[in-house]
Amino acid sequence: MNQWQFGLAGIVVILACFTSHTAAAQTIESLVMPGEVIHGHMDVESECSSCHKRFDRSAQDGLCLDCHEDIASDTEAGAGFHGKSDDVGDNACNTCHTDHIGRNADILGLDEETFDHAIADFELLGKHLEAECAGCHEPEAKHRDAPGECIDCHREDEPHEGKLGTECADCHNPSDWTDSTFDHDTTDFPLVGKHREAECTGCHEDQTHQDTPTTCFACHAEDDSHEGRSGEQCNTCHNPTSWTDTSFDHAKNTDFPLDGKHAQLSCNDCHSEDPFDDVDEMDMECIACHLEDDDHEGHRGTDCANCHSNEAWTENIFDHDMSTDFVLNGTHETTACVDCHVEPISETSPDTRCSSCHLDDEPHDGTLGEECSDCHNETVWKDAPLFDHDLSSFPLLGAHDDNECDACHETQLFGDTAGECVGCHLEDDSHKGAFEDKCASCHNPVAWDLWLFDHNMQTDFELDGAHIDVACNDCHRSSLASMRKTGERCMDCHRSDDIHDAEFGSDCGRCHSDSSFNEVRSLQ
For a 10 Å CB count at each end of the chain, is N or C smaller? Predict the structure, then answer.
């Protein structure tokens, strides 16, 4: 018998021995078992076939998964650690989990500190990254059996009393439990404008989010500056973007568009009562609101729009030129209405004659008539720019043209002004009346001291010889009236010069000439 046959025979003998001892109920596997299995496999330790198949190592993984059905499901579905980890893959179970090394052996090899939770069915995000493992995984429970729903761990933190269900993730996120990600637009009350900035508890006081009011007035009654006078339909005027910014379109919704300064008014400036009830009773005339602003005290009637606009109450838009028969020119343009319109327009229209307004300004005492425009215009009242003195009985010539009016006209009763030179120049008469009042016979208005009297042409006594250079006063020692009585003989003037003592008579010209009194003319 060779060695192989001897060995086989030995095994057969041994098997026969074991077969005969059925009370021990042991197999050859139990005899060659390398060591005790872990505590979790202790119940099947005597049944090797539970984990091993004779002469077929490849079948071992199938036996493992037959018992560990949850692991089998994960690997098939690609879920959980065994379905997601690259370390598992096609490797045999005993690659990581070796048994028969003692009851208390740890064949899981789990290192909680380095374990990547992302390959589990519950990835750690936000605050969960800071949580302790024991906070979710109880000591005696499998890690895979840890709760996976928010409510499982946060039931005590849930303030909604279960009225919003258990899907916490619909509103909350793991980064910040108090930061709600709930999309309010999915409800019957989308959040618009300032509502998006409101805290949830601003509307949901008890956090149950049940029976929350959805009307503006229900939340904003305390903000109602109208004190209920405008009703509870806040959205008629207001919008959620800005509570103080009214969206009420006065132009479209009423018969009174708000223009100019009216657009800047607050509702209460005009609507003292409920604006939706008193609007039919409101007087839309300007005077209804601006009676106290009427500086005319009723003189201009009640149709304020004739003169005023919505842009500026103090700005007068009345066009006097287009709307009346009296065009405003010159200083009339800047004259206040009340200066001419003393009486109410509705009762009387002012007289458009100058004298009707300027009677107190008329200094001529009526002597020049009522046609003021003959001399004056609306630009300059005091001066008389239209009066032409040259067309009067006294044209202004020479120095007269440079004189101020009051140099000749002491008063403005111009009809009483003297027209003769002596009337103004009596004090300037150096002749002291010797030549009467015919100043123009010698003088002219160009210059008082430039006289042009021609004795040869204007009198019957021609000046020849030495008489030409004789001063007027040398002959005219008395008035012209007395001079005319004297006569024209030489003796009439030269009696005191007669050295002959009248012995040769009074005809001096027989011997003397008017060139020189001392020169004696030949008598031949």
Answer: C
CB 379 within 8 A of CB 331: yes
- 229's CB contacts (< 8 A; 6+ apart) are 273, 274, 275
Query: Which residue's structure tokens are 């909680």?
Result: 112
Q: Residue 310 in 3-state DSSP? A: coil
Cα 380 to Cα 331: distance, rounded to the nearest angstrom: 8
CA dihedral 283, 285, 290, 291 (to 10 degrees): -80
d(CA 467, CA 459): 14
DSSP-derived secondary structure for 382-433: SS-TT--GGGSSS---GGGGGS-HHHH-SSS-GGGS--SHHHHHGGG-TTTT
Q: How many Å apart are CA 318 and CA 104, to the nearest integer? A: 110
Rounded to 5°, the CA angle 89-94-96 comes to 65
The pLDDT of residue 493: 82
Q: Which amino acid is at 275?
A: P
Question: Residues 393, 398, 404, 406: is their CA dihedral positive or negative?
Answer: negative
Which residues of the chain, if any, have pLDDT below 70? 1-31, 272-283, 346-348, 522-524
> 199-216 b/e with 16+ CB inside 10 Å = b?
eeeebeeeeeeeeeeeeb
CB neighbours of residue 448 within 10 Å? 15
The per-residue b/e assignment along 94-117, b for 16 or more CB within 10 angstroms, e otherwise, is: eeeeebeeeeeeebeeeeeeeeee
| The pair of three-digit structure tokens given for residue 43, joined into one six-digit string | 């119940």
Q: Which residue type sits at 308?
A: H
Per DSSP, 36 falls in state P
pLDDT for res 279: 58
Look at the pTM and tell me if it is higher than 0.85.
Answer: no
Alpha helices in 155-310 (DSSP H): 200-203, 216-220, 250-253, 267-270, 286-290
Nearest to 219 by CA among 241, 234, 197: 234
- Helix-, strand-, coil-residue percentages of the chain, each rounded to 5: 40, 0, 55
